[in-house]
Amino acid sequence: MVKATEAIAIIPARGGSKRIPRKNILPFCGKPMLAWTIEAALSSGCFTRVLVSTEDEEIADVARRYGAEVPFLRESHFDDQSSVSEAVCAAVERAQREYTCEFSLVAQLMANCPLRGVQEIKNAVEYFSAGDHEFQISCFKFGWMNPWWAVKLDAQHRPQPMFPEALKTRSQDLPPLYCPTGAIWLAKPEALLRSRSFYGPDYRFFPLDWRAAMDIDDHEDLAMAQLLFAQASYKGDSA
Questions:
Q1: What is the C-alpha to C-alpha distance for residues 207 and 158, in angstroms, rounded to an integer?
Q2: Same domain, 68 and 157
Q3: Tens-place pLDDT, residues 55-98
Q4: Does one domain contain both 122 and 24?
C-alpha cells in the first residue's frame, strides 16, 4: 500500500570532489560544510524527509550525526561525468521504494551552499507552491560585475564582445541579468523523473540574495564564504 504524499529534500554529497578534496565535510565555520544545509532544511519545516545522497560512508556518518536520513548509499552517478540531476532522480526513485510513498515535492539542496538559510528555503518553497510551474531553479542577480560588458579574448588578447550592442548603452539602462545557483532547486517529482532534469519544460528562476546563493567550488570561493559568514548582520538575515 502506498503512503500519502511527502515532501523530500535531497542533498547530493559525493566523496570525490576534485577542486577542494572532501569538500562536503570540510570544516566550515565550526561545522562540516554539509551540516549547514542539513540543519537549514530540517529547521525550515518544509520537508517530511531530509535525505543525503552519497556513496561515501564517512559522509553518510556525518549526515546522520546532524539529523539527515541516509537509508542507502548511492550505487551510481557519483563519477565526474554524471550530472547532479541524474543522482537526484536515482535517489528519488530509490527513496520512493524504500519509504513506500509518492512524493509531492522534491528539493535539491547542494551541500556547497552553506550560506543559504532557513528563510531562503521557506521563501522558495512558498513561491513554488503558489505557482503552477513544475520546475524552479534558484538564481542571483549579477551585481558589480556587469555581464553585459563580457568579452572573450583570442590568442592575441583581442576582445570579442558577447553583447556588442550593450556597449553603446548606459549601464543604468541595461536590464538586470541573473545567474543560476545550486542553492535551492525544486520540482514536482513525476515531472522531474520524466524529464531527468530540473531544466524541464517551463522551468522558472527564483532570485536569492547573492550571498545566500553562493556556491563554494574552489578555495577562493571558500575564503569569500568564510568572510561573508563572519558578517553578523548577514547571519541574522539568513537564520
A1: 34
A2: no
A3: 999 999 999 999 999 999 988 766 666 799 999 999 999 999 99
A4: yes
